[in-house]
């Protein structure tokens, strides 16, 4: 059968967008190089036209320059066409990448949705409400225990608060009186000065000893008073 009809040839895979873009860009670079060479040639012809006098020689140079200019315009048209093709391929590639991103996003969302559904099966609102109620009950019991442990002992229950406030006011009055009396030491208070002088009763310095000096001009040391 293969000898009669021949074997089926394996077809090459179609070029990708990236391959087509690279191929067109290489062609565009080639066209750009040709346009640059033509620009150099046109510049040379322009200089020759300026230096040549009007006549057959100048007309010949102008004819060559016109031919080069036509080639440049043709290559510029090809370059614009290649740029348009590259732009279209870029737009298609951008759209394809957007679709791929959308597919990945959908796959991720489906996976997350499935996982969430599985998690929601294990979590029930009623269980959460019951747990919250139990926590509130436990907190109430804990508060009651703390209040019980913090209860004071040996304090009568029949104490009148007004009596306590009266004793507190009296205590503050006594503290104020003690503070006023303690502002000045007892030995510096006016009614104690006479007693202090009587207790000390130091003898007066003799008149002949006041401002006395020795032979060196220094204050003389008073002799012991008997």
From TrEMBL:
Family assignment from sequence similarity: Belongs to the SNF7 family.
One example of a Gene Ontology biological process annotation: vesicle budding from membrane
UniProt keyword Coiled coil, yes or no: yes
Entry-linked InterPro entries: Snf7_fam
UniProt entry tagged with the keyword Cytoplasm: no
Keyword annotations: Coiled coil
UniProt xrefs under PANTHER family: CHARGED MULTIVESICULAR BODY PROTEIN (PTHR22761), CHARGED MULTIVESICULAR BODY PROTEIN 5 (PTHR22761:SF12)
GO cellular component, one term: multivesicular body
Region of interest called Disordered, as start-end residue ranges on this chain: 1-28, 202-226
One Pfam family from the record: Snf7
Protein name (record): Charged multivesicular body protein 5
